[in-house]
Design a protein that fits this description.
Layout: H1 3-10, E1 22-28, H2 34-48, E2 51-57, H3 59-69, E3 77-81, H4 84-91, H5 99-104, H6 108-111, E4 119-120, E5 123-124, E6 127-131, E7 134-139, H7 140-145, H8 153-165, E8 169-171, H9 179-193, H10 195-202, H11 211-225, H12 242-246, E9 250-256, H13 268-271, E10 273-276, E11 288-290, E12 293-297, H14 305-315, H15 318-328, H16 343-354, E13 357-359, H17 362-365, H18 368-384, H19 387-402, H20 412-415
Parallel strand pairs: 1-2, 1-3, 8-9, 11-13
Antiparallel strand pairs: 3-12, 4-5, 6-12, 7-9, 7-10
Helix pairs in contact: 2-15, 9-10, 9-11, 9-18, 18-19
């Protein structure tokens, strides 16, 4: 052993020859989720000797901090969202591609169904570790009273009308935060026009004057014109309508399975909560679903890249994803993962396994600048139902954010896809 190496060992720095003994991972979490991640981080430490220091922020604060972290005081691994939010940082060169790691580990075998959301211009930039389903929640006893689960859009509309006649608000929504309204546009568009058109529209490649978009708004307007939504929706946050749902004053909720963290577990009421896919509208259209996917990415400015990659390999494992998501109430993207025991989680697995393709959600599938302009318009539409006004404003926002190269009156047939 050389004299220099002897000095290094004597000073107690030998572990640094193998790896850093600590990495920093940033997380965007709900208050009740931290313990699940800390269990996983502890397992990672026991297997590798690498301790994890977690940097935790709630939703809005985290989103504001990410662009700062990517440039200064950068964590080694960062929690983020798939699709356009990820692509933006990839395009700016702020995150590292992990294509070599992906290919080396043969991740196409486990993650092919979600690869699209982490791939930008041929390179992979993140590992999916959790996703969750969207759909319609209802009280089983109430829906049974009105004829059972509706099979398609027309029978759904008919049930909503029967509920309204009986004094029940057919659809509950809290649009104070705006984004819950966008789910209705997402799903009607996916059911009528499919995934490719939907993504082309949200990335600026299709004019909102396209006839297909007008047809979506026409269907959505039926819900508004018939007063199927609660009238004061703009006064409530998304979860503040849940008490009305529990008391049988609201028929249906269109939400992601994050709502499960609010369900009254242990209460008999929980057993009465059912789930169904958003109804089919175009009978010839395959099922496409919203499945927002959470990912871990490695910033370009990360200090401990090899250790970060070790964590990526760890969090990609089916056993790790099964354990983490069982606690979170989400689904493991790894195809070999084991789904949690909750009936609603298993319904979600069934829903996503039959889907022909997955979208992320309106605000994840478009640029943040467009989301800021467009999502409030979706919430406003639930009140006004004004097709001409929302079309004009959405098109103006599209041109402002994406540019006018496609033309104000462009159509999907003229535009194709990028």
């Amino acid at each position: 052993m050389s004299a220099l190496l002897c000095i290094v060992f004597f000073l107690g720095f030998a572990p640094m020859l193998l790896h850093a003994d600590n990495i920093r991972i940033s997380l965007q979490l709900q208050p009740n989720q931290r313990d699940q991640f800390e269990l996983i981080f502890n397992q990672f430490y026991l297997e590798t000797g690498i301790k994890v220091t977690s940097l935790v922020e709630p939703d809005l604060a985290y989103k504001r901090k990410v662009p700062v972290w990517l440039l200064n005081d950068t964590p080694d691994v960062m929690f983020w969202s798939a699709s356009q939010r990820l692509y933006r940082f990839a395009e700016q060169g702020l995150i590292l591609p992990i294509t070599d790691l992906w290919n080396e580990q043969n991740y196409d075998e486990q993650f092919s169904h979600v690869k699209r959301g982490v791939t930008f211009k041929g390179d992979v930039y993140a590992i999916p570790f959790a996703y969750y389903h969207w759909g319609i929640f209802f009280r089983k006893t109430m829906v049974e009273k009105f004829g059972g689960e509706p099979e398609d859009w027309e029978s759904f509309l008919a049930m909503l009308a029967r509920m309204k006649e009986s004094g029940i608000t057919p659809i509950g929504i809290g649009s104070r935060q705006k984004w819950p309204a966008a789910a209705w546009f997402d799903y009607i568009n996916l059911r009528m026009n499919g995934l490719d058109f939907h993504l082309d529209l949200l990335t600026g490649n299709v004019s909102f004057y396209d006839e297909k978009v007008r047809n979506v708004l026409t269907e959505w307007k039926k819900l508004v014109d018939r007063d199927f939504y609660n009238q004061d929706h703009e006064l409530y946050n998304w979860d503040e309508v849940l008490p009305f749902f529990y008391r049988d004053r609201v028929g249906f909720l269109l939400l992601g399975n994050f709502v499960a963290s609010k369900w009254p577990n242990g209460d008999p009421l929980f057993e009465d909560i059912g789930f169904m896919p958003f109804p089919r509208i175009n009978k010839n259209m395959p099922f496409f679903e919203n499945a927002p996917t959470d990912v871990f990415m490695i910033p370009r400015n990360a200090t401990n890249v090899e250790e970060a990659k070790a964590f990526i390999r760890f969090i990609a494992r089916a056993d790790v994803q099964s354990s983490l998501n069982a606690g979170l109430g989400y689904l493991p993207p790894n195809k070999d993962g084991i789904v949690g025991a909750s009936p609603l989680i298993r319904e979600g697995e069934k829903l996503l396994s039959r889907a022909e393709g997955l979208a992320q959600f309106f605000d994840r599938d478009t640029l943040p600048d467009f989301d800021r302009l467009a999502t409030p318009l979706m919430a406003e539409f639930i009140t006004t139902g004004d097709i001409e006004e929302i079309t004009e404003k959405l098109e103006h926002a599209r041109i402002k954010v994406f540019g006018s190269k496609y033309g104000v009156m462009g159509t999907s047939s003229e535009l194709g896809s990028d």
